[in-house]
Amino acid sequence: SSSTLLFSFISAAVGLDCTGNDALLQVKYNITEDVWNSTRPSNIYALPFLILQDNEQQQQQTEYSTFTDLVDIEKCLPRDECSTVVVAGLPTSTYDISFDGEHVEIGARFHYEEKNPITSTDVGTCIKHPPTCQDTEALVEVQFWSGQFSYRNNEFRIEDKHGDTILNGGSTSREYSSVIYSLNSTYACVARQNSCYTFLIGSGFEWNQGYSLPAYSLFFDGSLVHTNDSFQFDSAQFGDSCQPLCNQDNESLVELFLYDDDQFDFEYKWELKLLADDSSTPFASGEVSIGLNKSPLYHKTMCTPKQSCSSFLISAPAASGLNMPIYSLATDATIYREIQWYPGFNSQTPNNQTTTMGSCTVNGLCDVQTHDLFDLEVHTPAAYKFWDGRSSVMIPYGNVTWNFDYSDDEKRVPPISRSDALLSASHYISTAYKTGSSYRTIECVPKSKGNCDYSFNMTADSAVVSYAVKKNGVQLVNTQGVEGLIWKNHDSFMTKLLMTPFGQSCSPPNPSKRGLSAGSIAGIVIACLLVLCLLLCVITMCLKRSRREEQQNQRDEEDPLRETLL
After folding, report:
1. What residue ranges in 283-360 does DSSP mark as E strands?
2. Residue 50, SS3?
3. Rounded distance, CA 492 to CA 420, Å?
4. Are the C-beta atoms of residues 186 and 200 closer than 8 Å to each other?
5. What's the whole-model pTM score?
6. What digits encode the pLDDT tens for the residues 263-291?
7. What's the pLDDT tens digit per position in 441-454?
8. Distance CA 354, CA 348 (A)
């Protein structure tokens, strides 16, 4: 990348005289210290800043840590080139931008923190060149804001109804900037009537709650179709002849996204099987080829019979271990898995992964002699706020924590071969949860020796509005709040839990009424034995001392001369 960051850029020159083909850029602040203090966000790390980006994608940036840092900017810039002024973390009413003596309206605005936006304003000669469409065509435009990430971490495209790409941008598009805080537009002329188009987008980083995340706006024939500033994957259909992808009466829509921008040639394979189908032939299968000059974004939709139980298998070559794809799998908008996968990284992450979806029964999916069917459905709230007050349509995956594990705390401490719970939320979602969405996990789990050996445990502060746990199709309702051990990010800790025993007619263990565990009993027995041994030693020493004194007195009585000599 040719981009550079010069953090020392602050110019307060007064009456700067620009010569030749240069013109004066001015950014003037009209904010009082009281307004500065009242508009600071609760997160002190979301500092205001200003960036100047020139036509060569060179960046000059300064941060405003305190009110006294706000110094008016004056700089000479080429008049016939395009430059961009990015201002973040200040109310738009508190600064003015002018170029070559003329006021410039503040440009596109994006989310930065809960009180103030980040804006991107072009100055100079910034001529956009959208194509001139014919009368029977409509203009499609995608505006993409990279936020605090570079374009190289994102990919989008638009496909026609035949699956052919008619527009793309991001990682494989050289015309797109690789610098942060960049706004670009991509255009195409497409048929206006009797058409249907699909917009697809994916990111190569796991979504996080950072500031100024990537965002996009999709326009068709001058109208806004869709916009989003919080996504891992997203899609949208537009056009006058779009129809549902599946027959909604008797079919379910299975949707697969995968993103991997590795530059080495690589190939994933996947297959979808209907478990009620006796045929060994998969219902659907495919290959995902990645590498240099290949799109890192893969997307596939399939229609399966409603009420069917399906199994999705994805595999990577045995030589993998460095690839880290992110993939998402959903059926009828219920998400079953969305993770960053590390195939072959170690013994805990094999080169293949299976996800079960749909309407499954214990008889149809599991060996009923040795396994039970675990079925969890989680619903997230319609709205979510971070600790600093920011609203978000995404929930960090760590804010929804659940395990399926042993009911007894001591049994949850795993052997060396197991570094996590039997089942854990992070096995299925490691990116982020969407607000107002459904998530589901279906697994065959080993039968326990006792009816209540296992339990489902969710942290009491998890960002969910409701959830349901089923064993062999029967919903379990005997949930109780307890203090217990749970796994999170391959580490265990004690916290308040909502514990649901994975069995019938059993109560969650109450810490205040629990009997002593086997380990506790063993510890008490050992302590008692040590105390007993110590007591025996003391008694023995006392007896020996008493005997010595008696023997000495006896000798004194038998030898009168000894007393005389003394």
Report:
1. 284-290, 297-305, 309-315, 326-331, 334-340, 352-358
2. strand
3. 8
4. no
5. 0.80
6. 788 899 999 999 987 777 899 999 999 88
7. 999 999 987 768 89
8. 14
